[in-house]
Amino acid sequence: MAVIKPFKGIRPPKEMVEQVASRPYDVLNSDEARAEAAGNEKSLYHIIKPEIDFPEGTDEHDERVYAKAAENFQKFQDKGWLVQDKKECYYVYSQTMNGKTQYGLVVCAYVPDYMNGVIKKHELTRRDKEEDRMKHVRVNNANIEPVFFAYPDNASLDAIVAKYAATKPEYDFVAPGDGFRHTFWVIDRDEDIEAITKAFASIPSLYIADGHHRSAAAALVGAEKARQNPNHRGDEEYNYFMAVCFPANQLTIIDYNRVVKDLNGLSPQQFLDALKKNFIVEDKGTEVYKPAALHNFSLYLEGKWYSLTARPGTYDDHDPIGVLDVTISSNLILDEILGIKDLRSDKRIDFVGGIRGLGELKKRVDSGEMKVALALYPVSMKQLMDIADTGNIMPPKTTWFEPKLRSGLVIHKLS
Predict the structure, then answer these.
(1) Exposed (0-12), middle (13-18) or buried (19+): which is 198, by Cβ within 10 Å?
(2) More confident site: 89 or 126
(3) Which of 141, 307, 378, 396 qualifies as a cystine partner to 282, CB 3.0-4.6 A?
(4) Torsion angle, CA of 31/35/37/39, rounded to 10 degrees?
(5) pLDDT at residue number 345
(6) Torsion angle, CA of 229/198/386/159, rounded to 10 degrees?
(7) Counting beta carbons within 10 angstroms of the beta carbon of residue 98, is it exposed (0 to 12), middle (13 to 18) or buried (19 or more)?
(8) Residue in 103, 66, 55 with CA at minimum distance from that of residue 251
(9) What is the pLDDT of residue 148?
(10) Which residues lie closer than 8 Å to 195 by C-beta, 6 or more apart?
(11) From CA 172, how far away is CA 93, in angstroms rounded?
């Protein structure tokens, strides 16, 4: 069962939240962060992308950059741009995109739950990315950014969240750039704190939706601190890391699409003919075609859109991995026809989050940068949870969650 606890969050004063809050560290590059933080010394990018305080071209993994993160984190606290709550609290964080709102509970998750599989994963992590985030957690002695969890629907948690959502929020703003609304409440009543802790204790599993590297880094640093402490008891703050937990029924996974640089020596007609072995191929003309259902794909090639429908027998509906469209397309198109064996390392392929729309696929092919684009029907939360429950791992670049969590609304210190 899931162990969680409240914590003394470190947060910006209400009037500063819009200046402090930022996009997550991994959705933009150094140049974009530098541009977004221009003229704003209170931007969280000075902590999560501290290379922006160095000359352009400075390696973000330089030891001086990590040290700068810690220096800036301390400066934000000294100047009162980040202030710690006096009491251990939970928090409600809601996001509204395209008229739909999802409500998450900000909690501290338990490091041993990550290690023993109560917190379930569906993606592999890369050690170099883990190490980068571990250094960031170590040097700041804090989880500066939350991870994004899902939990099975729970009526008692829904009721508590709804009670707070009906009150005046602590923060309420529309983020620049994406136009999404971010709203935040503090849960500081003892009876509600106790009820939330108890409700999670009846939930068998939590699921990492987004932030596998941050989850791994936070848990590994916590375990490292436990090993290094000769008087370790198990209730120290470093045994916990910050997560925003959403009920699974409120979350939507959007499509995560592929663009490929060449046809592996085939002409466009040869490529289309090769597809007919495993797919029903239909010419849809020049109008954008979006996949209509599972096992239906959209292909863009030489100014035209095609519908590809996987033929019966090319997938196994009883295999949680084999049934995924990302598996079908990886095996029968990318590998078998285009010779792309490793999605993580092959330089001929790139990935485009569905938030950018299918027009982005068309643009990248029409520009000549890419030869062909493939759009997939999105994975469902049920598929994600089934895969995590069976101990399986999804192929790379399968899920894209939107909206992304805003960083800087609350921070968790490890001591």
Answers:
(1) exposed
(2) 89
(3) 307
(4) 140
(5) 80
(6) -140
(7) exposed
(8) 103
(9) 96
(10) 156, 160
(11) 10
Return d(Cα 374, Cα 256) in angstroms, integer: 10
Peptide bond into 403 cis (omega under 30): yes
Question: Do the Cβ atoms of 135 and 66 come closer than 8 Å?
Answer: yes
Distance CA 328, CA 319 (A): 12
pLDDT, position 30 = 94
Asked if 221 and 229 touch (Cβ cutoff 8 Å), the reply is no
Residues 146 and 241 sit within 8 Å (Cβ to Cβ): no
DSSP string, 301-356: ETTEEEEEEEPTTSS-TTSTTTTSHHHHHIIIIIITTT----TTT-TTEEEEEGGG
Which whole number is the average pLDDT over 212-229?
A: 94
- Apex CA 49: angle with CA 128 and CA 136, to 5°? 50
Torsions phi, psi for 276 (to 5 deg):
-70, -15
Tokens of 240: 């916990």
Going by DSSP bridges, is the β-strand pair 253-254/349-353 parallel, antiparallel, or unpaired?
A: unpaired
Query: What confidence category does residue 69 fall into, taking pLDDT thresholds of 50, 70 and 90?
Result: very high
Query: pTM of the full predicted structure?
Result: 0.89
DSSP 3-state of 368: coil
Which residues touch 162 (CB under 8 Å, ≥6 apart)?
none
Read off the pLDDT of each residue in 261-279 and give the average, rounded to a whole number. Answer: 98
34-43, 54-63, 163-172, 337-346: which range is least confident on average? Answer: 337-346
The closest alpha carbon to 338, from 264, 261, 259, belongs to 264
Q: What is the token pair recorded at 270? A: 């040869």
Q: Where are the alpha helices (DSSP H) in 234-299?
A: 268-275
Backbone angles phi, psi at 352, to 5 degrees: -130, 120
Element (H, E) at 104: strand 100-110
pLDDT level of residue 374 (50, 70, 90 thresholds): very high
- Computed over every residue of the chain, the mean pLDDT equals 95
**CA dist., res. 270 & res. 283, Å (int):** 15
pLDDT 10s digits, 135-155: 999 999 999 999 999 999 999
